Amino acid sequence: MYASDSNNSPILRLDRLVKNYGDKVAVNNVSFTMPPDAILGLLGPNGAGKTSIIRMITTITHPDAGTVFFEGEPLSSYHPTQIGYLPEERGLYKKMYVGEQLLYLAQLKGLSKRKATDRAREWLTIFELEDQWDKKVEELSKGMQQQVQFIATVIHEPRLLILDEPFSGLDPVNATRMREEILKLRDKGTGIIFSTHRMEQVEELCEYIVLINQGENVLEGRLSDIRRQFRTNEFLVTVEGEPPSALLEKYAATLLAKNRGEINSWTAKVAMGTGQDSNDMLRDLLATNAKIQTFQEILPSLNDIFIQQVGPENIDDVAVLNPTNYA
Predict the structure, then answer these.
(1) Does residue 198 share a domain with residue 109?
(2) Same domain, yes or no, for 21 and 131?
(3) 3-class SS of residue 65
(4) Roughly what angle, to the nearest 10 degrees, separates helices 98-108 and 142-154?
């Protein structure tokens, strides 16, 4: 487990959670702690147990063993009113009008009709959907339906928000708008669990991750710390001038590019060997009076780490990134 960044109690804590479906163990002694006011990426291949964990957090199902703690208290029938859940499989009523549906779902979460109306109109305005109030859901585009579902998920101002593939079906403009609103909710104090197969979205949004594989959590912590944990001692170097062959050979550098234009430069990837240090190469470069443009450590992408932890046979449902990421 990892500690919160503040003295506040964690918003969510899972303690040795177990869930079985017949002879199949879906979740096996999963424990992790979610810091408050943070975005946590819940990751894993298909069938890893992520959905089973989410269903127990939202009380859709109950664990066979273990306990879910919400703001320090064992999960009870009251806590779902403090949780918003956007499932991957959307669940709007196609024949209902947008406004009617938002009011209905908001009142199920305990809002008065007046407060639900005010918040629904406010959120529809944010997404430029204010003219859709009297439209049936089935008349909307897939992207508009997705935005309405998001509004229904956050309209009661939950303390914990669970988002499963929230950007599915959105064009880049509306995906950016939703991303901005998610970050605003985080900044206002909402804890957010973000589940997706797109690793670049996790790297962009999440401060913490929990990786689930075969029903067990195999990796957790602050994303920046995890990337450094899996560092490979590789560096990217770009220098003006002609590449010094002796220096490249000494550090087993791979020349990636040799650019000729107004200014000659070369770029190399360096994998430091045993007993070598990046500062040694930096000093050697400086001794040649070279003009160094970049000298960066290459850190593994989250996608690289995912593949390393769960095996390449599980990457068919993951968006593969460019493997080169820099500190």
Answers:
(1) yes
(2) yes
(3) strand
(4) 30
